Amino acid sequence: MNKLYESMYDLIVETSTKLPKDVRRAIAKAKLSESAGTRAAMSLATITNNITMADENVSPICQDTGLPTFKIKTPVGVNQLEIKKVIKEAIVQATKDGKLRPNSVDSLTGANSGDNLGDGVPVIKFEQWEKDYIDARLILKGGGCENKNIQYSLPCELEGLGRAGRDLDGIRKCVMHSVYQAQGQGCSAGVIGVGIGGDRTSGYELAKEQLFRSLDDENTMPELKELEEYVMENANKLGIGTMGFGGETTLLGCKVGVGHRIPASFFVSVAYNCWAYRRLGVNINPETGEINEWLYQEGDMIDFSKEQTNEEEVAATSDASEIELEAPITEEKIRSLKVGDVVRINGRMFTGRDAIHKHLSDHDAPVDLDGQIIYHCGPVMLKDEEGNWHVKAAGPTTSIREEPYQGDIMKKFGIRAVMGKGGMGAKTLKALEEHGGVYLNAIGGAAQYYADCIKGVDGVDLMEFGIPEAMWHLNVEGFTAVVTMDSHGNSLHADVEKSSLEKLSQFKDRVFN
Ligand SMILES: O=C(O)C[C@H](O)C(=O)O
Ligand code: SF4
């Protein structure tokens, strides 16, 4: 199998950089469903532009290249240990080449291994089968959407929907609720894999297994096919929309699988995947290790670059004029911003995510943050031979994780704007009002689009936290984002959550007997 290394490397790079055909078609359909001038249309224009940039740059679609999860079927007699070894080598190289972000973190010390290897990382699941070739599939599922996975133990009470009992209708309610509870935080529009039955572990495994299905396939079980169709039709009426900005498309796919359970347990497990649904597969010759065939190749390939350019589209779809922002920003300027404004940032911003927020809550800042912008982002960075850093991918991360710290940190250091995705909660909203601050929402997953707005890396602090968690000093040009929480007590996220809960409650009545 001397070609196996090359095959695995190619599988990793393709998965990270090229969105599969079925996903592109679902995104194109979502785009058609949104009216021009809406925030959803503007976000989808950025997303499709980002997909094209990832194709052209052969760079990660999203900076969070996830927990690499391989599912491999081998003919009897194939050496699985060798496959495992080769996969690890290919992972290390793809990380060095900036195709994967170093994403493997010691859970106790917080140390990043730097090469994407670690205890239990990558995940490689083997199975044997009777066929004479190797079927190797890979999914790169990021952390933001992983955090929105949910497991229900039936019977249960669900907000908006009431009791979910141990039957198909109870399952229906759980699935509808799972989409509601994700809001925009898992970078909607999403794809859900649902596992009915099993135990807490095998239920989630079954749910994730569904994510290996093609978006276009049809469930072979009539009742599950009906459930999938029901969810696709009705979850899209919740009005959560792309990034939780409101809109027509909240879900790109729903795939349901079922397994047996034991009498006392009845789990419905949901694996939520963002729009950056990176999964591919190959059939491999077990003698040579060469790729015989790429999987998920059915149907048309949408080349978004042949469509309108993003600038044209954004100009055509956005009725809001852009407001220029450059740090240091005054309190007066910040208080003039309102939810719905589109800002265009030039100049300096600092990245800060989980480790930085924790650090800043009980240490001094390494730089003066007065009037500054903090970007919730863990980029993919590469260092050249002269020692200069280059940004390879840099989209926002889910901001809500910083909720316990954010308001206090803004006040402590005089920070005027924080930017991320998915919005923040009541504590931050109150602090924005008291202190004079705004929350800016960038488009999740648009890592190439934003990397292109970063014109230079002027420094870095707290590198001991690892590349994604360090504080990078970025120099940006034309970095656009939407004000979704302002200093007057307004939050688009709170509004969408409230209205989607009202819509969810329309689905309270029994549908399946
Ligand atoms: O870790 C990241 O960069 C982003 C993460 O996938 C998220 O969605 O919050
Ligand atoms: S940032 Fe969004 S698109 Fe990227 S992995 Fe996280 S959830 Fe997915």
TrEMBL record:
Cofactor(s) recorded in Swiss-Prot or TrEMBL: [4Fe-4S] cluster
* Transmembrane parts of this sequence: none
State the reactions this protein catalyses.
Answer: (S)-malate = fumarate + H2O
Which InterPro entries does the record associate with it?
Fe-S_hydro-lyase_TtdA-typ_cat (IPR004646), Fe-S_hydro-lyase_TtdB-typ_cat (IPR004647), Fe-S_hydroAse_TtdB_cat_sf (IPR036660), Fe_dep_fumarate_hydratase (IPR011167)
The record's section on Gene3D superfamilies has: Fe-S hydro-lyase, tartrate dehydratase beta-type, catalytic domain (3.20.130.10)
The EC number on file is 4.2.1.2
Q: Which domain of life is it from?
A: Bacteria
Q: Where does the Fe-S hydro-lyase tartrate dehydratase alpha-type catalytic domain lie?
A: 6-281
Class of this enzyme: lyase
Supply the alphabetized keyword list: 4Fe-4S, Iron, Iron-sulfur, Lyase, Metal-binding
Q: Where is the Fe-S hydro-lyase tartrate dehydratase beta-type catalytic domain?
A: 289-495
Keyword Amino-acid biosynthesis part of the UniProt annotation: no
- Kindly give the NCBIfam families that the UniProt entry links to this protein: ttdA_fumA_fumB, ttdB_fumA_fumB
PANTHER family to which the protein is assigned, alphabetical: L(+)-TARTRATE DEHYDRATASE SUBUNIT BETA, L(+)-TARTRATE DEHYDRATASE SUBUNIT BETA-RELATED
Question: What's its job?
Answer: Catalyzes the reversible hydration of fumarate to (S)-malate.
Task: Please give the family membership noted in the entry.
Answer: Belongs to the class-I fumarase family.
Record text on subunit structure and interactions: Homodimer.
Q: What is this protein called?
A: Fumarate hydratase class I
Gene source species: Sutcliffiella rhizosphaerae
